[in-house]
Amino acid sequence: MTMTAILARVLRRELQLAYRRRADLVNPLLFFLIVVTLFPIGVTPDLDKLAEMAAGVLWVAALLANLLSLDLLFRSDFEDGSLEQLLLASTPPTLLVLCKVIAHWLVTGLPLTLLSPVLSVMLALPAGAVPLLMLTLALGTLTLSLIGGVGAALTVGLRKGGLLLTVLIMPMFVPVIIFGTAAVQAAGDGLPWAGQLALLAAMALGALVLTPLATVAALRIAVGD
């Protein structure tokens, strides 16, 4: 079997397992929807003020929604022993881990990105900034999943590692939020945004290359390999 076929099977398996845990998939989307929906009610109904805060609100809500499912990324594999088999497989573990993270993004980050245009209307985000919002969220949530994979690997052996996971990875999430929010705000104000987008893409590319290596190293520590 070719490497591509193996990775395709791993990705399909992860998506099937995620589908069986439908409640875990819906929770981040519901959280994202509830936070953004309640924000105009709890803060201000003024459309001008909402438009100024729209990018930040959407990005912070997406980050928090992403955090809800990160703790489960490797936990089931750790509990049933398949995590050790993953690390001992003939296929490079970095590619297998990357498949798991991409599957996580497909069932969390991508739905959040697709839902964002609807919610941006509630926050009066200028229509011209919506395509850039979707692009930055797609890149940003992928980066968050990749970085979050490292934290999930470090805390996979802990019974209640959710809080520690948040503390570990939150500082690394901050630059992603800063540049993602800045790009959308600049687009809404009619200012240049290419620089912020380029930095966000660079962070996504760097995370794509480096985090699988760090995640595998953390998993080896967790299983005592």
From TrEMBL:
InterPro entries: Cyt_c_biogenesis_CcmB (IPR003544), Cyt_c_CcmB_bac (IPR026031). The chain crosses the membrane at residues 25-43, 55-74, 86-107, 127-156, 163-187, 193-219. Its main location: membrane. It holds the Pfam family CcmB. It comes from Saccharospirillum salsuginis. This is Heme exporter protein B. Belongs to the CcmB/CycW/HelB family. It is found in: Cell inner membrane. The keyword Cell membrane applies. One of its GO terms (cellular component) is plasma membrane. The lineage of its organism: Bacteria, Pseudomonadati, Pseudomonadota, Gammaproteobacteria, Oceanospirillales. It is a multi-pass membrane protein. Keywords: Cell inner membrane, Cell membrane, Cytochrome c-type biogenesis, Membrane, Transmembrane, Transmembrane helix, Transport.
